[in-house]
Each structure stands twice: as structure tokens, then as C-alpha cells.
Amino acid sequence: MLYVERPPLPSDDKRWRIVSGTMRKHGYSRNALIETLHTVQSSFGYLDEPAIRFVAQSLRVPLSQAYGVVTFYHFFSLKPPGKHTCTICLGTACYIKGSDKLVAEAEKLLHIRPGETTPDGEVSLATVRCVGDCGRAPVALFDGELSAQMEPARLAQRLDDWRAQ
Amino acid sequence: MNAEELQQIAAAAEEERGKFDYEVNVCMGTSCLAQHSDGIRDAIEKEAEGCGKRCHARRTGCMGPCAAGPMVLVEPAGILYGHVHEADAKEIVASLGAEPVARLDPQLGSYFEGQHFRVLENVGHIDPEKVDEYVARGGYEALLKGLTEMTPAAVIEQISKSGLRGRGGGGYPTGLKWDTVARVKGAQKYVICNGDEGDPGAFMDRSVLESDPQRVIEGMTIAAYAIGASKGYIYVRAEYPLAVQRLTVALREARRRGFLGYGICETTFNFDIDIRLGAGAFVCGEETALIASIEGKRGSPRPRPPYPAVSGLWGDPTLINNVETFANVAPIIRNGGEWFASMGTARSKGTKVFALTGRIRRTGLVEVPMGMTLRQIIFGIGGGVPDGRKFKAVQTGGPSGGCLPEEHLDLSISYDALISAGSMMGSGGMIVMDDTSCMVSVARFFMEFCMTESCGKCIPCRAGTVQMYELLSKICRGEATRRDLDQLTELCEVVGATSLCGLGQTAPNPVLSTLRYFRHEYLAHIDEKRCPAGVCQCGPPPRQADLTGTQGAAVEVHA
């Protein structure tokens, strides 16, 4: 029987076992790369270099290819998210209903641009292309929880609530 | 599974239903769930138990009018409530068998007038996580009929006869596609369901997957039988966690009942489906890019031919159809191709689901027969533009489509009519704009989208979209000249003609259609340095305004 040496788990963090589980489920097939990266991101919140190296070695995918996949898809993040994440939808329906004003408000309050995290690591600001609740645009997600028919004032209120904690 | 067993399941589900006098169906779509409709359902159940009414509080899928959510449908009276809160549970339960609660009337007016439910026929009536409820409404009859009474060729013949065309936007005849894949020789073939609904502002596929996943599974299984595939994939956006969860449950349920797996319906036919998650790349809606993504690679498209029908997933013959296309399959097999073709226009048959959004009174999911006019949809179903504003344009087809002005409101919806008007059917996003929208800004918005979503493989798209975006920005800023406009038009032609895949080929469409119908707005920005809608900051901006965010703060400190 062919014995393929797989790299050891990067640490004894239990979450790596979930990642290994995904790869095992797909028989360590190369085409499980995206599925595995999804598991890493959902377990750790982002993908760092050791994680990408581990996944690439385990699936015998060139590191360059794994890195290429990570940077190609918007869903994957190379930076750790802040304690809270505010995601503003920039789909067409949201745009027509003024989601650019929401982004401007968030940028003004947090002093960061979309894709960045405040220096204290408290809040990340992100944008997304349509979450599919266009009927109640504009939409924003606060820590993944959907808030519809958003207004700049309400957005500011939610961000303030986070800071007050 | 045979016909008798199918009837038994349906009868058992019916019997279960018979135990209740009333059914209160609560919408559990993304939109209503975000407004805690699960809590409303629990409250209704508890309330009904408390007062001893035989009432079943059911979790159902999206009922359409999302803006009036959370929605509750009371059966058998057929009363629809909107904007329901947990506190209303008591009143709703008390009203069962009596007068409806007038206060909770969703005020939908003519929202349902002219709508015709085929794809969405079960939506709002079944629990998407229960396969038996789907069977009770005639589900999997078509699969059984196809597998036991029809040859694969006969199945394809019915699909061809129906005149069904791809609902993902291109409008390629579905029967022809199936026939091509069926004719290609190959030991292993695949069926892929394209649920990568990248068009921002559209949510038809999300809604169908969330509300009636079994229907898509049945459609895929019939397709697999017709072309001789044994393995299928559903590619869903990771941005739709609820759809993924419902699909996972639905696949498990279908396997449990023997609608997927080995020896389906006591035949020798084997088929199973896996879910693959998208990762946020619009280009993956293109079939060759989608295949690359399922293979675990970057979603870069490749030149066709060879088409996926010949060489698709891992080089094997592959059939790719959109969610809504598969959702149309079961009723065609159940009722025959002629039944399907009896509705619609000469070359566009059946119905189309649209996500009606934007500056419109009643937003939501609508299903209309092909051939209905835009005016009927926007002003009839949608109730027109609110706040006394004036209708300006309707955008269909997403970043690949175009904006149509008021003159085209009497255009009847069909693939060909929309293309000749400079837009396209697309997957079904329909976004209404009023006079507060600047059409140049809208074109720039779509171009920015295409620019960031370009995969970078071919130069016309990679570089062209950036240049077009810069030119549009220049026009918005009021710094452009007539020469820039000529250059923009020329670029549109070049990028459209020379790009590798659909993304680049159609990226100029929003610009071309707005240039065609709203040229005066472009000229106002260029010649008069003003934005007719008052959206753009034309003319040289004041220096202070250039300083944003932290920079602005720093200047203040300095002063």
C-alpha cells in the first residue's frame, strides 16, 4: 500500500482536527482545496501562512497554487478579523438605496477603509456583493446578523454599542 | 421506491395534515428569519397548544413580498399577514376560524395579480426540510414517471418540446443542451447545478434553494437519468448559509427516502449529489470557471470549445444548468412539454422568476408568465415608484445587462425582446430606479463591479474594465471631454468583441445601454459639468473635501 507522509498538525489546537476531518472526508484529494480552506476560515476566522502551508502540503498542492486560490476568492481573508465585524452589502439594490452613504458613515466613524480593522482590533469593516435580501435594501451585517433597511444613523448607533461594551 | 410507496408517503403526510384544523405557515426565508420569524412560529405553536386549537405552525420558505415580512400565511382560509411580531401570536391564534386580524394586513394591493406560480408553486406551503411534504404535493412523481415509464430519449424529447431555455441568463435551449451531453460517449458524466447567484440585486436562486430544495434535486436527478450521469454537484455561494444548510438537510432526506443513491425507484439507475461552496467570485457563474472552482482551482474561465458538454468536470461530459432551470424540469415531465409550452411567447416559454427591488413600492420575489410587460410588473405588481418620485429606468440582467427607460415599459418580457432593447434577461434581477439615480454613476457602479470581479486572465477584460472605469469616474467628476466619451464608446466595442468569457463580453452593456437611452446625462456631465440627478460632485472639488477619514482628522489637529 502506498504510504504518503502527511505533515503534522501545526499545533495541538483542536480546530486542526476539524480541518483534517474535512480533508479526510474528501480522501485528501487535491480538488478538496477550496472546501478545506473554507473549513480553516470558518474555524479560525482567517487563513495565515502556516495554515495555507499545512493545507497545501496535506493535499499535495503546490503552495503557489494554494496561495493563488486564497487570494483569488474574495471570501478568504489573510488577516485576522476584529472582535466585531460590520459588513455592508454593495449589491445593486443596496447601492440604489444608498449603501455608499453607509460605507462613508462607517469609514468616518471607524477611521478605516473596507477590508481593514481598527488598530485596537475591535471592529473590522467589510463589504460584500449581495447577501440576497435585496427586498429590504440597504442591508448590513453585524457579526453575521442581518439588519435590513439600514440608515447611517442606525449604523452609527450599532457601532457605538460595540464600542461601549 | 415504487408508485405505491410514493402514494403511501403522500397519504401519510396528508393524514398528518388532517389532524389539524388550521395551518399557520411562517416564512423562514433569510429575510424573514433575520426578523426573528422562528420566534413567531414558536409563539404561535405555544399559543395554539394553550387554547386547545388544532393548529399546526409550519416553517416554510419565502413567500415573495420580503419587504412586508415577516410573513405568515393562514390556511385553509388563505389569509396572508405581514409585519408580524411575536406579540401578535395570540391575536392570530384567536382569529383562527373567525375574522382575520385586519391590523396585520400586509397591504399588498395587486402584488399577486398576474403572477403565475410554477417554479414557486410549493413555496409557502411546505416545510423545506421535510421531503414527505414535498411528496404530498406531487413531488417525485415526475422522477418515478421518468425512470419507470420513459426512456432517456423520451425525457429529453419532452424537455425539447417544452421550449424551456436556460434561466441563468443566456437562454440556451435546455433540451438541446441535454441532447448534446446525452449523445457524447463517456463512462462518467456529471450534472452540475449552478447556484452561484453572483448578480448583485438578485435572489431567485437563493429563495428556491431555501424554500423548495427537493424540487431542484428532483430536476437534477431527472437530468442525470436523461444524459446518463451518476454524480452531481450543486455549486452554492458561501454567502447563502441558510440555503447551504437547507440543501444539506434536503439531500440527506432525499437519500433516506431513496430518491438519491443506488437503485433509485427500484431501477438500476444510481445518482448522488454533493454540495460545493463558492467563495465569492462572480466569474464562477461562467460555466468553465465554475468547473475549475469545483476542481479546487482558481475560477478562471477557459476558451470554448470544447464545451463542458464534451469536456467538462475532470475532462468528462458535463451538463450545467441554473437552479431555476432544474426547478422547471419536474412539472414538465409530470404534465408534458406541451403543457409547459402553452404559456409564454413564441420563443420564450413558461414563467420567469424575478427579484423586484430598488425604488419601488412593493419589493420581493415575483413569478410571471413570459410575455408580460415591464409596466405590468413594475406598476401593477410592484405598485410603481414611491414618494411621488418619477420612474427613470429599470435594470435587468445585472452587470451584464442594461437599463431600459420609460419608452420601453411596454416591452413584453422575453429573451429576444430584452436583448434587442439593449439589455438581457439575466438570471432575474429587476432593479427599478427613480429620478434620484444618476445613470452615469450606475454605469460606473457596474463597471467597478466588473473591474474587481475580472479574473485577470485575458487582457481586454483585465485592462479594459479599469480604463472604462477611469473614464466613467472622470465623467462623474465633470472632468471629461467629448473625446473621452468617444474613447469610452470605442473601448466598449473592443472589450465586448475580444474578451474571453461572458463577463468581459457583457461588461460594456450597462455603459452601452445608458449611452443609448441616457446620452443626455453623459453630455450634461461633460458639457455643462453638472449631474442632472444631483448625485455626482461635478466640477473641481474643494481641496478640503479631498481629505477623507484620518487625513481629515490630522488636518484639524494641525490647524
Task: Write the SSE topology.
The complex is a heterodimer of chains A (165) and B (559).
Chain A: H1 15-25, H2 33-44, H3 49-59, H4 63-72, E1 84-89, H5 92-96, H6 99-110, E2 123-128, E3 140-142, E4 145-147, H7 152-164
Parallel strand pairs in A: 1-2
Antiparallel strand pairs in A: 1-3, 3-4
Chain B: H1 3-18, E1 22-27, H2 30-33, H3 37-51, E2 55-60, E3 72-75, E4 79-81, H4 89-95, H5 131-136, H6 141-149, H7 152-162, H8 174-183, E5 190-195, H9 204-211, H10 213-227, E6 231-236, H11 241-256, E7 272-277, H12 287-294, E8 318-322, H13 323-327, H14 329-335, H15 337-341, E9 351-358, E10 364-369, H16 374-381, E11 391-396, E12 402-405, H17 415-420, E13 429-434, H18 439-453, H19 459-477, H20 482-498, H21 502-506, H22 509-517, H23 519-527, H24 543-546, H25 549-558
Parallel strand pairs in B: 1-2, 5-6, 5-8, 6-7, 9-13
Antiparallel strand pairs in B: 1-3, 3-4, 9-10, 11-12, 11-13
Helix pairs in contact in B: 3-4, 6-10, 6-14, 7-8, 7-10, 9-11, 18-19, 19-20
